[in-house]
UniProtKB/TrEMBL annotation:
PROSITE patterns: STAS (PS50801). CDD domains: STAS_SulP_like_sulfate_transporter. SUPFAM superfamilies: SpoIIaa-like. The lineage of its organism: Eukaryota, Metazoa, Ecdysozoa, Arthropoda, Hexapoda. InterPro entries: SLC26A/SulP_dom, SLC26A/SulP_fam, STAS_dom, STAS_dom_sf. This is STAS domain-containing protein. Keywords: Membrane, Transmembrane, Transmembrane helix. It is found in: Membrane.
Length: 611
């Protein structure tokens, strides 16, 4: 085989031409380098056999684990479900307050997700229900508009999550990097804790935004109520001390573990009993939660219209009021739930599509029971895992506990001091501020601290949704800059009697890096008096049409300098992209399977032939 005319092991019918001392051959390649249309069906994974037994079991995980359920698991699942139930009741009430809703809506949001996830969930540890971040994001839009907007948010978020899951588009959350996620979570925790300071100190006012919360505290600090402050701060101290009981050893280990897991319920019960005992003629020394509607929520369609302050909102008006949260809520819900599933997977693969379908259905079904948007709770999932849950059946016990609380205990919720609920939330927020993540980011890649702090600061000053978008935007700018400035190494190689400039880009090339590549190659060629320019593409797995056009421009620019160009070691698919642009120009210039010695010999031979 004549290696001077070889390209990737294939020969081309030769039409010899000579250009600047380098022989080129053009003609029809034996390879067919035409391109097929993109297979969009592969992206969305449309497949036949949508009703196959295997797929049904995959989409209904209960059909896989329930037939193999061991009766020995029952006690462990009940204990775990009971422990989670005692945790979710005070948290649900507290998160409803964060969302600007009446306390019962936190409990309405805490049971249906357990039942739906029991059927559709694939991770035994996850518990679905109200969370601090989701409550805060809901509060921004519904605090002054009422529960119908929270229910519609749940329905719309569920529909979007379900659609994204069915279309296999969960990869969208991968565009939210770890620094952005850590900054968002930390900002949410700080904002939530700031919003509870007024209740902790017994101050008047209603604000949950970071700046507004502290402005309200400073403005009303002279109205601080002594007994509320003492009870609230004391509750935080007790919660932090009880958390440490899980580290007890010996015969006290099990006792300490369950006291630690039940700490929220214990302090709420203790605060309620204290407020009841100190009440005189129904007046307590603390601000109380007040009346909580007892009984189960009505089963009805989510509200597609609402009347608020004598103003009627149509469906489009309601969606307009919800604004960017229609998109932000589903993405944050997916991010939280998938992250929790991965954290507790213990090396097992996670079916992200199924988790999204389950989460979407939890929100959709929950919206029929007056639920606000829900997602996986890391705190309660950790409690579930620590309690030894064995299957998703633990969620049934949790759901039943919440229903019993709604039906039998709603009257007692009247005496729950607001400062105790504020203490429960603030104590939980201490561990959501990701100081360790900031240190880890700084240690690993210092430039990544920029999107972390940008997200953190903008979320605090502008709100969570805008902060998240700005953080993602800044992070994407970094990514785009990196793709537009590939590292381009070069060296001068003298092979035989030929001086070569070898240029080596270190990554795939896209439109944003095309002009940079061209400028570097032309400049290096001007700075180094060589006879031949070789562009080594061993690391280039992809180019687009813009890059192909720029490569043609490099050939023309170096032709003016009377320096021929050879493209060496480029992938076959990359070559074909260039061939489709201009086969006559590119086919003879791509050399694969040849060494620099062979390229030099061919160049020298062609020079002699021309002479």
């Amino acid at each position: 085989m004549d290696k001077c005319n070889a390209n990737g092991g294939k020969m081309y019918r030769n039409i010899p031409q000579h250009e600047n001392g380098l022989a080129v051959t053009v003609g029809d390649a034996e390879d067919d380098y035409s391109e097929e249309l993109p297979q969009l069906g592969e992206l969305f994974k449309f497949r036949n056999g949508c009703c196959s037994t295997k797929l049904i079991k995959k989409r209904l995980p209960i059909l896989t684990w329930l037939p193999n359920y061991n009766r020995q698991y029952l006690v462990e699942d009940i204990v775990a479900g009971l422990t989670v139930g005692l945790t979710v009741i005070p948290q649900g009430i507290a998160y409803a307050v964060v969302a600007g809703l009446e306390p019962q809506y936190g409990l309405y949001s805490a049971f249906m997700g357990c039942f739906v996830y029991f059927v559709f969930g694939s991770c035994k540890d996850i518990t679905i229900g109200p969370t601090a971040i989701m409550s805060l994001m809901v509060q921004i839009h519904v605090a002054n508009l009422g529960p119908p907007f929270a229910m519609l948010s749940a329905f719309l978020a569920g529909c979007i999550i379900l659609i994204l899951g069915l279309l296999n588009l969960g990869f969208l959350v991968q565009f939210i990097s770890m620094p952005v996620t850590a900054g968002f979570t930390s900002a949410a925790a700080i904002t939530i804790a700031s919003g509870q300071v007024k209740s902790l100190l017994g101050l008047p006012g209603k604000s949950n935004e970071f700046l507004d919360s502290w402005e309200n505290v400073i403005h009303n600090i002279h109205q601080t109520k002594l007994w509320d402050s003492l009870l609230g701060i004391g509750t935080i101290v007790v919660l932090l001390l009880m958390m440490q009981l899980k580290n007890l050893e010996g015969s006290w280990k099990t006792f300490g573990k369950y006291i630690s897991l039940s700490r929220n319920a214990i302090v709420v019960i203790g605060g309620t009993v204290l407020a009841y005992c100190l009440s005189t003629d129904g007046v307590a020394p603390f601000q109380l939660t007040g009346n909580v509607t007892s009984g189960l929520p009505p089963v009805q369609l989510p509200p597609f219209s609402a009347v608020v302050h004598n103003q009627t909102y149509s469906f489009t008006d309601m969606v307009s009021e919800l604004g960017t949260s229609v998109i932000a809520l589903p993405l944050i819900a997916i991010l939280e739930s998938i992250a929790i599933a991965k954290a507790f997977s213990k090396g097992k693969s996670i079916d992200a599509t199924q988790e999204m379908i389950a989460l979407g259905l939890c929100n959709i079904v929950g919206s029929f029971f007056s639920s606000m948007p829900v997602t996986g709770s890391f705190t309660r999932s950790a409690v579930n895992n620590s309690s030894g849950v064995r299957t998703p059946a633990g969620g049934i016990t949790t759901g039943i506990i919440v229903l019993l609380a709604l039906g039998l205990l709603a009257g007692t919720f009247f005496y729950i001091p607001k400062t105790v609920l504020a203490a429960v939330i603030i104590a939980a927020m201490f561990f959501m501020v990701e100081f360790h993540a900031a240190a880890e980011i700084w240690r690993t890649k210092k430039i990544d601290i920029i999107p972390f702090f940008v997200t953190l600061i903008t979320c605090l000053l502008l709100g969570l949704e805008y902060g998240m978008v700005i953080g993602i935007g800044v992070n994407m700018c970094f990514v785009l800059y990196q793709t537009s400035r590939p590292t381009i190494r070069h060296y001068i190689e003298r092979v035989g009697n030929v001086d070569m400039l070898v240029v080596v880009p270190d990554q795939s090339l896209v439109y944003s890096s095309a002009e940079y590549l061209k400028a570097r190659v032309v400049k290096l060629s001007q700075q180094n008096p060589v006879e031949l320019v070789v562009i080594d593409g061993y690391a280039v797995n992809y180019i687009d049409s813009t890059v192909a056009k720029i490569l043609a421009g490099i050939i023309e620019d170096l032709k003016i300098q009377e320096r021929p160009v050879v493209f060496w070691n480029w992938q076959r698919a990359v070559q074909h992209t260039a061939f489709r642009l201009d086969a006559e120009l590119f086919v003879p210039r791509f050399k694969s399977g040849s060494s620099l010695d062979e390229i030099a010999k061919c160049w020298s031979l062609d020079n002699r032939i021309e002479a």
